[in-house]
Amino acid sequence: NKNYDELNENYISANYLILFIMTPLVVFSFYFAPDIINLFFKRGNFTDESAYNVVRFLRPMLLLLITTILTPFAGAVICATRKIKESFKYMIFRDIVILFALYFFITRFGAFAYPYVQLGGSLFGYFIVAWFFKNNIPEIKFYEPIKDASFLLLLNIVAVILPAFLGQLLTNFSDHYQIARFLASANPFAYR
Known about the structure:
By secondary structure, the chain is an all-alpha fold. The chain has helices at 2-31, 33-41, 48-69, 74-80, 84-109, 113-136, 144-171, 178-185. Helix 2 packs across helix 3 (48-69), helix 3 (48-69) runs parallel beside helix 6 and helix 5 (84-109) runs antiparallel to helix 6.
């Protein structure tokens, strides 16, 4: 039992450390994706449409970083607890569902479906692994990192929105519709 307590503590602290580093990177990159893409594309002969398409593809891929951070140590915990054989059917089921979803959505919606299917597949995979942990390794608090990720995500979103709002308010002070314009530009999928 002492080994499980130590393993659980290490699992949670390692996940928190990676989330603490990556969440601000993801949130700020998500918000500044148009500026980042423009910086890279300015030197080339790229159209506004191609830059817009890159931003559309990049933003969900950035969110994918957070969802894949949630399970990096699950495999190590499975190995450490010697539950590899028991985990096999869960992982095969997860991978088959994700492969079928990739095929189904990409053939119907094209390449832009890929990051969204990966995002959904990553979340689906997280809950399949959580189901495995609940049934086979209940001593590990598998849901704790998702609480940490939610808190860090909320904190970083507030850290981006408040300065962005104040920046919009100060730069457009004479404009009577600055708040409406800001709210319209705050759409995370709108290209600035």
